[in-house]
Amino acid sequence: MSIAFFGELMLRLSPPGRELLLQTPKFEVNVGGAEANVATGLACLGHKVRMISAVSDNPLGGAVIGELRRRGVDTSTIVSEPGRLGLYFLTPGAGLRASEVVYDRAYSVFARRPADAWDWDALLDGATRLHLSGITPALGHNTASAAIAAAEAAAAKGIPVSFDGNYRAKLWESWDSDPKAVLTRLIGHADLLFGNHRDISLLLGRQFSGDGADRRREAAEAAFAAFPKLQTIANTARHVDDADSHCVSARVDTRAGGYQTDEVLIAGIVDRIGAGDAFAAGVLHGLIESGGDAKAAARAGLALTALKHSLPGDASLFTREDLAAFDEGGLDVRR
Amino acid sequence: MSIAFFGELMLRLSPPGRELLLQTPKFEVNVGGAEANVATGLACLGHKVRMISAVSDNPLGGAVIGELRRRGVDTSTIVSEPGRLGLYFLTPGAGLRASEVVYDRAYSVFARRPADAWDWDALLDGATRLHLSGITPALGHNTASAAIAAAEAAAAKGIPVSFDGNYRAKLWESWDSDPKAVLTRLIGHADLLFGNHRDISLLLGRQFSGDGADRRREAAEAAFAAFPKLQTIANTARHVDDADSHCVSARVDTRAGGYQTDEVLIAGIVDRIGAGDAFAAGVLHGLIESGGDAKAAARAGLALTALKHSLPGDASLFTREDLAAFDEGGLDVRR
Amino acid sequence: MSIAFFGELMLRLSPPGRELLLQTPKFEVNVGGAEANVATGLACLGHKVRMISAVSDNPLGGAVIGELRRRGVDTSTIVSEPGRLGLYFLTPGAGLRASEVVYDRAYSVFARRPADAWDWDALLDGATRLHLSGITPALGHNTASAAIAAAEAAAAKGIPVSFDGNYRAKLWESWDSDPKAVLTRLIGHADLLFGNHRDISLLLGRQFSGDGADRRREAAEAAFAAFPKLQTIANTARHVDDADSHCVSARVDTRAGGYQTDEVLIAGIVDRIGAGDAFAAGVLHGLIESGGDAKAAARAGLALTALKHSLPGDASLFTREDLAAFDEGGLDVRR
Amino acid sequence: MSIAFFGELMLRLSPPGRELLLQTPKFEVNVGGAEANVATGLACLGHKVRMISAVSDNPLGGAVIGELRRRGVDTSTIVSEPGRLGLYFLTPGAGLRASEVVYDRAYSVFARRPADAWDWDALLDGATRLHLSGITPALGHNTASAAIAAAEAAAAKGIPVSFDGNYRAKLWESWDSDPKAVLTRLIGHADLLFGNHRDISLLLGRQFSGDGADRRREAAEAAFAAFPKLQTIANTARHVDDADSHCVSARVDTRAGGYQTDEVLIAGIVDRIGAGDAFAAGVLHGLIESGGDAKAAARAGLALTALKHSLPGDASLFTREDLAAFDEGGLDVRR
Amino acid sequence: MSIAFFGELMLRLSPPGRELLLQTPKFEVNVGGAEANVATGLACLGHKVRMISAVSDNPLGGAVIGELRRRGVDTSTIVSEPGRLGLYFLTPGAGLRASEVVYDRAYSVFARRPADAWDWDALLDGATRLHLSGITPALGHNTASAAIAAAEAAAAKGIPVSFDGNYRAKLWESWDSDPKAVLTRLIGHADLLFGNHRDISLLLGRQFSGDGADRRREAAEAAFAAFPKLQTIANTARHVDDADSHCVSARVDTRAGGYQTDEVLIAGIVDRIGAGDAFAAGVLHGLIESGGDAKAAARAGLALTALKHSLPGDASLFTREDLAAFDEGGLDVRR
Amino acid sequence: MSIAFFGELMLRLSPPGRELLLQTPKFEVNVGGAEANVATGLACLGHKVRMISAVSDNPLGGAVIGELRRRGVDTSTIVSEPGRLGLYFLTPGAGLRASEVVYDRAYSVFARRPADAWDWDALLDGATRLHLSGITPALGHNTASAAIAAAEAAAAKGIPVSFDGNYRAKLWESWDSDPKAVLTRLIGHADLLFGNHRDISLLLGRQFSGDGADRRREAAEAAFAAFPKLQTIANTARHVDDADSHCVSARVDTRAGGYQTDEVLIAGIVDRIGAGDAFAAGVLHGLIESGGDAKAAARAGLALTALKHSLPGDASLFTREDLAAFDEGGLDVRR
């Protein structure tokens, strides 16, 4: 019994400190992938999770599997096959210089795997939830079909599906895609959506005016109306002062109503990558622990995303003790 | 003729950058120990200091002695004996994640050394002052007895004693201790106390209401009343915005009156560990240089603690030139 | 056809992170020199530039030449001769501790080269502009004479000259110099001056009262009056909160009028060295691209100096794409 | 179904490169422990293994568990309890300077755990073999009793026991131990012993004269005579030229006869620690794969120990492909 | 006027020290590519060289161009286009563990560039020689056609062609290739071939028996007979003791006769990658400097390949002074 | 009471690993200087030593003093004055590439200090021996005069003088020196000379034929004849296989006879710099401990120089325990 995550696994290569890419000839390496980040976040909070993916059958793929195993993720549903592993290069920003990502994920084992090579009946056996994100279907025909097949298989088995929008225009534009159709089909199976008013606008073809909490609620209600299975919508609003200092508030809506946190100032950002995935992990944790409470979910999501900004790497590695300490407050040295 | 410091010496092991402990398999190593930090701070300002301690007779102990010698501390009063050296592991915080210390100092050579193994008559020979802190008596029976014996020997020889509260509840609670009794006995010999209204509350069993300067003065007067030998009390008040940004004001009280600095914003904190020890070194320096002036002491204490936050490692390594530059102000590049 | 830069090339040695010099026994190395920084900034923006200098004929000199070549600077006008390469040691500041530079550039190949060893006719062949700074004449008799000879040769050939004040009192005071006379002679040949009201006060022997934009304009007009060839004056005003956080506004004046940008907050400073050189590169770029427009120059100068603060090393390595992204704004991760 | 390993887990801290301990203030960290090294070696060869141990319930213990998990070891039989984690400090040798180990493992959670806290019935459930080494009983009364209880429980369940002598005089001498009695009792339950003629001499109280293969066979036969359950004995003979260059031959004896490999020259040694554990893993692998063949075991043991010398860290991380490549020979670059 | 090199440029990513790939999460980065290595070797010896290639139009491609420029290679004939840059991962061997290369070069900008996109007339303008290797045609149809077109264009212009066999079976086998036909066509245009008796066997479909110098001469004569334009053949013979210690002899044959060096022991190998490319650079240097003398070429080739083994990275960075020092001998410290 | 050493202190800057200088932009830093190396070697063996020198009054000079203090050297006889600190750049060799030193020590505080600024009466107060080397007088007139004054002052006070030839032709040739005259004058005051037959040939103007032990004895006898105060001569003979592997034998001659050790193979050399200084420290240690025994001196010298080759940095940091372990032999891991 574990939560299943389906998505690509990648190595992230980044320069030391705040250097530009290859300013000096070193890379620091992290294991990433939006869905794996959420899986990791939950595993470190003590939840049982499995990763469904495909990696190269060489030392790079082996390293990725080993790293997930280290974090407590069940990797027995990852296949290793000939081909290449997706990479991405991150140049961390600073001050008035934004972080930049250069992808080198085309032609990966994951992206090229035929949709019918995934045996969803076996892969989802014993799963308590399936988590997908909008990155997987954006990679191409194979993965779009695979994501839809996964969602349908979960629906057929009565396994709840959560979906994180993660809309990446560049990926969708790199092939003859129809993002609205694919996403609509996927979200049709979801009980939980991570997405903001812009994501919902894209799906429903309408804008939400007003601002702040009202707009966020209005968009949520429109999504609930459009997607009958949908029960919960979660998102953050982020104001970016500079690369090192953001303000974030979290919101979780159910059909019954919503809860929105105060905005917190997240200064001295160490690594912003994966902050959205940490939010998703926190919300899932909050929902599971509270039995579906919007406030608990929003608060746990905010806590985990806030903490993630302080941590190098793509994934939240925080424990329940860390969440409790965050709730307690007190940011001087703990001895 | 030198100022004597008695306390444990430890290695601090911390991850690179802002990583979690062992997120990658490296440790950066620093030499620490509250009293040694004060000694170092004063040595770098040109004062003659000696360290009284016990370390393991292996390369770790040797490295600690060598490092203190590098900083200009007289190490001829440190013994090397079989056993282990105390360690601690620091995970530096960032943003909304607090720094955390994991101690591995139990069973150390220092903690296990019998109280009667210290020959205070010899160790304090030629000492112009003895500095102790509340950490030493908190370690256990051996060190509590040794600290008291040291203070009594100093008193008997007419050597002034300074005492830094450094109250660490976890250490006191790890054995059948009576902190109030021990601390009262130690402070009874001190002419200089580093401690705030909470420390004094603990000693005297009463609370100080009001806020800010008034409460700090009221607590100081209560302490002067309770401890007849006490002439000076110094402390900082710290407001923590996040792990990287604190506000600090310094205050020094004498029986005649007190001086309190403005609060300074210390942003972009590099290493907060040892900031209190740097404050103590600055105050001692200010008192020595000014012949006991509260304002000079408070200002030097504030300067050294402010500077310490900018420096990796446990101890202030700043010189008189650095103090003078801090007083001058001007924070753009100096050429 | 390229812009010619004349000045010393140096290695910068600095400790890792925010350590003091030799706190641990490592140096990070960068290639610096005020004029080379401007040249680099322009080369990375796609301009053709050449460096006129002299380095040691050993692996250090070779490394400096190689690094400039890597950045796209034409190094065929750099000579390698027996002697030493200038060095400088940078201790980066943090928080309330200022950065400090210790020079070890005396007796360098560049400083000791006789003024008549430079063949300006050949070195300036095909040059579209000559850029000098106030550091070169401050180094001693040889370089002061060489700088004047360069400016005169350029003037004789009808090559425009730009001059960056870069007033360093310690250098001028290290020999029997007459800075006002030398600088006046040099600026007499310049059509473009980088300098603020303090630089102009020094040259003209008068103060400019008032504040902000008015004082900056008044000083510019006085300079235009004193130096008939001068057409453009550019400078920044910088307010330093602490070592990590500055506010900067840029201004460019022509005889027709001036343009001054809003002040921007540059927080989370990674490396402040070379920020002035990046400003000069940005202004030159803006002037070249716009055909001499003050607003375009001020905005490009501000952008490049703001970005430089986020980058380790002495020189701006930013491209036109980076400038465009800065103008667009948006400081969250770019994918 | 997995092979069970019982032993202490430790962190190894070592200086970078070939420095002395704390010559510069960095440690490289590895996860070690003789039995865990064997477990790792087998896991990387595709065998199912579990580790039975106790670690501190802090980030250090967590890191050790995570690292074993990364390597594919089942860690569900490791308990996390209050206390300290054993450490050791390695100064790697070079040339004519030998490597040195300084232990800091006293008072560890593992060493202090009461013998009756281990529930062998549960811990050995489904185990196909139990592997012990002579280090565990050498740590003190608790672990000696626990090791004996483990061996007896395994014997009672019909689970084969293997035992690696790993005689460490200093550990046995640190308490009122009777190594001969304890080891005799443990080996009485073993079907497989890793030990050479010196180990057997210690157990049997007699010397083996002659040299080379004859002495090794004679000692093996004496051990077979003394220990009726013993079926296989494996060992290496090592000649040390200098710290970087050793010659090693492997031998495996069964009651039917023995197989001894040629001596191989292992030059350019990267890390000699754990070479004996890698040998044990290789022999176990060879025995399992071949169904008990002495030659296969000796050759696999030699291969894995030879490869281990080329790898930083305590444990063999080699795969079956690596073993096959070693057997094929050919040491130029493989593309 | 410069020597032209045509081939793929790649980044090499390798772990620190002697670790396995991603044993710790860092990569050291080098710029490689067989032909670029030869170009670099010659540039560092003072020859004018140009690189003809295609890289990705992102910071990775920019870094590769910058690095070649640093080494003195003319990069104006490198195009930057959308797509990916080829990578390879090197695990350096040690002792009895061989180095391993994992390629991730499929789908690169270079490999996918249509053969007719290269304008050989322009690219070879002013070239004094064209150097190709067997890797380029092995990558696929595009590059095979491009290499042939390049050789034919050079032949048509009267530009001598040199060809380095660099036979990589895995690359040829990855598509429907006919290596013998392609290589025969390419070598038909060459006056200088880097290849040994195995390469020639492959081309001519016959074996060469005997051993040592005789076999090498016999194969050379067969090649001279088969390829009328061929004037010089160069190769090394390498005996591999272990990953750190090889013995190498160099041989250069002309139609008039051959010169073979003694075998030298190359121990303590730092980086064996690119040793063949350094040999080619040395031979080309020797031929150019001597006007075609076999002995001079063989000796320079041996010197440069021997030195390359001592240097991290893919390319020889040695100068004429280094070659002279190698010839002089004397391997103690030079001051 | 301590042994006094007079000589220049320098920083050594070297690239990481086996890279060329500035192949990547990092330097590793060590504190060096021939005489300080000998002082360090003796301090680590427990002897009291003082260093007489002059360093820059900036953080670099401070770091040098701190490092010597760390090693246990009395630094109270080092002055800090305005000026520059001598540097040198070391490119460590490997295999068939020799190590190279580039000096940047000209114009240093030490070299420029007037000979009469040294107050030998005070500096030698309480000295039990004065150790000089041939580097100091080779630096220029100032230091040549200072070295002679030091030797004469020592002689006048009855303090024995030891002298290490350390003949560096390049230094002597950089000014109008007369090395034979200066060295003859200095050695005239010495009772102990470190020098081989080539050094003695230079002094006496005659060659020593024969080979091995005979030639070494013949040269020693000639030196004894020429220098009446000389009682002991020590030297090593070194055969260099490649940069990583040398063979060394030590010899110590007295007027009564000589002792020559066997040659030892020193393979896997980590850092050859300072091996001669370690030899001098070992010989001095052996002479002091044995009361002047040639065999004890030669053996201790050989041991310390052999060990030094295994250690990064310029100086021997070995203890008496290390010497004892070397004598015992046994180069496998010590636990």
UniProtKB/TrEMBL annotation, chains A, B, C, D, E, F:
Protein name per UniProt: 2-dehydro-3-deoxygluconokinase
Broad class of enzyme this protein falls into: transferase
Keyword Zinc-finger: no
SUPFAM superfamilies: Ribokinase-like
GO molecular function terms noted in the UniProt entry: 2-dehydro-3-deoxygluconokinase activity
Domain Carbohydrate kinase PfkB: 3-313
Alphabetized PANTHER family for the sequence: 2-DEHYDRO-3-DEOXYGLUCONOKINASE_2-DEHYDRO-3-DEOXYGALACTONOKINASE, SUGAR KINASE
E.C. number: 2.7.1.45
Keywords per UniProt: Kinase, Transferase
Gene3D superfamilies xref list: 3.40.1190.20
Entry keyword annotation includes Kinase: yes
The family this protein is said to belong to: Belongs to the carbohydrate kinase PfkB family.
